[in-house]
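Example with several molecule types.
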Amino acid sequence: MRYSKTLLPTLKETPAEAEIVSHRLMLRAGCIRKLTAGIYTYMPFGLAAIRKVENIVREEMNLAGAQELLMPMVQPADLWRETGRYEKYGPELLRFHDRHDRESCLGPTHEEVITDIARKELHSYRNLPMNLYQIQTKFRDEIRPRFGLMRGREFIMKDAYSFDVDDEAAGISYMKMYEAYKRIFTRCGLSFRAVQADSGAIGGSFSHEFMVLAKTGEDTIVVCKECEYAANMEKAVVKLVKIERPEVLGDMEKVETPGKRKVDTVCEFLGIEAKQLVKTLVFKADGKIVAALVRADREVEEVKLKNLLGAADVEMADEQEVFDATGVPTGYLGPVGIAVRMVADQEVAAMQNFYAGANEKNFHLKNVNLGRDFQVEAVGDLRQITTSDPCPECGGQLETTEGIEVGHVFKLGTGYSESMQATFQDKDGQAKHFVMGCYGIGVSRIVAAAIEQNHDDRGIVFPVPLAPYTVIIVNLGIDDEIINTAAEKIYEDLQAAGLEVLLDDRDERPGFKFKDADLLGIPYRVTVGKTFIKSGTLEIKNRKDGTLEELTPEETVKRLQTTILAELSK
RNA sequence: CGGGAUGUAGCGCAGUUUGGUAGCGCACUUGUCUGGGGGACAAGGGGCCGGAGGUUCAAAUCCUCUCAUCCCGACCA
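Resulting structure tokens for the full complex:
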């Protein structure tokens, strides 16, 4: 492609709206332009990168035995009512009425539509397993779209759905996708981790999120330094460290703590450590008051609390609500003699002779013990994991990093097939519900994540497999016949060698062109300038490491062809 | 939906406090020079100052209402 004929509007200055690197660079490099909040036009250069991702996804999905189809974006409300999601989905689902006043919605995901296809078209176990996928623009009316393509309302997603005869077969389908995903993200040149997204309530870990490791990620994940364990922070299982303490249970006594409400001040006043104190935090679970007990130096993980309680929604109660429910001012709350539902972190159950609030202003209790002095409704893993906790898998050291979720594999089971009566006839002649799985990849988000992970202060540094062009030729002598001819020649030859080449044939000054080449992040730059007249060589620059080479045109073609091919087959 | 901020030329901004009829840098057009890291000079084009209403002789500026966008918290690929 000739730069002079391309719509590739680069920006020297950064538009004020862009906050994170990928968004900023994608705007500056002319990849995207915003139409309205969370909705972007993919400009030719950005679209080329998206297509690269799509093709990798397509190849690997097909290789894994999945078939591509394309489902409608506009969907009838009735279909969504079958699964109850038309009511449940919330305002993210954009609903509207068509000219006949039929209720419709824009598909944020396609379980209903695909299950409808399955119940109509798949009738026998002989048809299974079946895995169908599409690459499509999704619409989710996000509460707060932000960060450009990272969280848009409109975005390109690959979604796949598998249908199997039973649980075991579904597990195989799941693993196939899991492996395909690893290949996809590896081929995209991303540094990523597959993290467990389910704490194991169903039994196995049948949900994984694929996270690209990047500082700007919206999720925090914990990663083991020694083994492959990785999990979303809010779901990471805390392994209880057994402490052998054959202590004699002391008699519970009241101690005065005048005006000491905070953990720090209480500990300082009593001359104890926070790990000897238990704090009582009050939450509203689906509107009902529940107290959660954790060691004073720990944090309650609301997601875990939610799961333990089986609640749909959990939030912290405010001071007034706490007082209304318990009659105790915050700071002196404790588990002994309090009339609310209580749950405790497993660590609290293992503690002996601890301190806690006395449910009386200016007093705490000493030598409190669970079981003897109070009872709780449930004990479980309630607290947030820390880097000083051992890896739940191998006991190794943990660290935290930020991650961007680019993929999610999930075993659905028979929820959808049951609510939509999607059955097939099995070997034994019985009608059975399909066991389903669903698998998503954020295609447009991958491009943003890749830039988040691969850039420097001069611009994007595209991984070769995602680069819209792999080579940019900088012609520095538009008016010089020798240089011009050489630039045209190498342009032809590189294309003939099967490479995607951008020829910068604009009448601009060298500095200007170099800056653009850096900004665009094209992996290899070939400069045709005065050195060609002097020595007949071209300069090849590697965008990533900055290495320079002087080669003849023939050598250049060979060198680029082999190195780029090598990069692509990694 | 709560909290904060911003809307002035394609982009980045000043001007708003103290009303007097719109400016700077970049980009764009033309010309000359220049030619290995966003070059120089000269001459141009481009703005119902987000929208509506009001106050006033006079509004980008003051008042009221609205719309939009961005940032911080609950969702997710």
